[in-house]
Amino acid sequence: MENIVNNGNNKMDLQFKQGNPTKVPPMKETQKGEYFLCNLDQNIAVIMKTIYLYKSNEKGNEDAPKVIKDALAKVLVHYYPLAGRLTLSSDRKLIVDCTGEGPPFVEAEADCSMVQLLGLAAADPLLLNNLVYEVPGVQSILETPILTVKVTKFNCGAFAVGMAMNHCMADGKSAAEFVNSWGETARQLPLSIPPHLDRSILKARDPPHVDFPQNEFLDIEDISNIQALYNAEQIVYGAFTFDPEKLLKLKTKALENNSLTKCTTFEALSAFVWKSRSKALRMSPDQITKLLFAVDGRSRFDPVLPSGFFGNGMVLTVALCKAGELLENPLSFAVELVQNAIKLVTDSYMRSAIDYIEINRSRPSMNGTLLITAWSKLSFHTTDFGWGETVYTGPVGVPGNEVAVFLPHGPDRNGINVHLGMPASAVKIFQEDIIEV
């Protein structure tokens, strides 16, 4: 082991000994050449970092790196694009060059227990970055590996698997199916959901045509000087807990004026966070505010996407209104906007979005925007490499100031933690709104 990392924490001087990275190619020869990425993949070429924590059992953690590394080589035979690298096609779009070189794999050791690290990370979430391998010195997304893996052993016998994957390769559902397949391979089981790798079923139409406004791409003027607020104050990243009782109160509140007949937990919580964040950021009443969130399009495409579709089958949908309307109206108003955004997602809408990207090469504008990404229903926690299910699974950090992440909370996963970052003054207002629910 080498490369000792000192985190400089005042409460406890943690050290992580990290070995040199080695490449893990697929165990067998795999297909070479160019691998097509569709337009839904092009828009989200950002690195998503996730960690999977496992407690000690009678097996200990000595064999964990080897078991996980060997299983990775085997599962990459099925998921061979993850063993390649990103490049650009002749028309300047992202594609994968299936070189078969394999992702970097790193072994590490921490001089603390898993419980100690999680305790410190509650106050300083950036500590969890130590569990994920990031290649130093890269200058662009094309130089950054599609996937990296790091296995960290704690002194208590627990261990962590840290994964950094480019979002252009997989949405949450696909990524969960990949890591669960990896776990099945480690346990010498057949894949319960073999991947379907052909993304050409989501190609743009020829010729492309846009049939909807596609307001997810709307560029909004920041008349409330929100960006200046973010620049002026310390940004506080927090996890705001909504237990089952509070979630039920939110749903009841959304239905209390009888304008709606039903409401899901996601709809009520998304509407509440959108409304309360707009209030906390002190948006001008005339500020246009946009809510973006992903809807799984797999069953909404016609024909439906095949089982095991590996890629981005999630489609962004949008709710839009003035901040004044959002704040002056009851919660049911925002919930109805969320419900209408979900109803918007049809095959025609999704094909129109794909064609819009083909014509405009645009990414959604984030001015005046809240982007919600919900992990509360994804099965990352079930990944079992032979040590049982995880004791904790989640992303490392929040991907941006405009993003809120919903993670399951509690022993039965019936609660939700909302992770987001806001200026310190806004956090206080947001917390007061939660208390009043």
TrEMBL record:
Q: Which GO terms describe its biological process?
A: flavonoid biosynthetic process
- Disordered: annotated segments: 1-21
Catalysed reaction, written as an equation: anthranilate + benzoyl-CoA = N-benzoylanthranilate + CoA
Spell out the InterPro entries in the cross-references: CAT-like_dom_sf (IPR023213), Plant_Fungal_Acyltransferase (IPR050317)
Main EC class the enzyme belongs to: transferase
Keywords from the named record: Acyltransferase, Flavonoid biosynthesis, Transferase
Key word Acyltransferase present: yes
The enzyme's E.C. designation: 2.3.1.144
What GO terms are given for molecular function? Answer: anthranilate N-benzoyltransferase activity
Q: Which domain of life is it from?
A: Eukaryota
The biological pathway it contributes to is: Phytoalexin biosynthesis; methoxydianthramide B biosynthesis
Q: Which family does it belong to?
A: Belongs to the plant acyltransferase family.
Its job: Catalyzes the formation of N-benzoylanthranilate, in the course of methoxydianthramide B, a phytoalexin. Phytoalexins are produced in response to infection by parasites, and are essential for the expression of disease resistance.
Name of the protein described by the UniProt record: anthranilate N-benzoyltransferase
Species lineage: Eukaryota, Viridiplantae, Streptophyta, Embryophyta, Tracheophyta
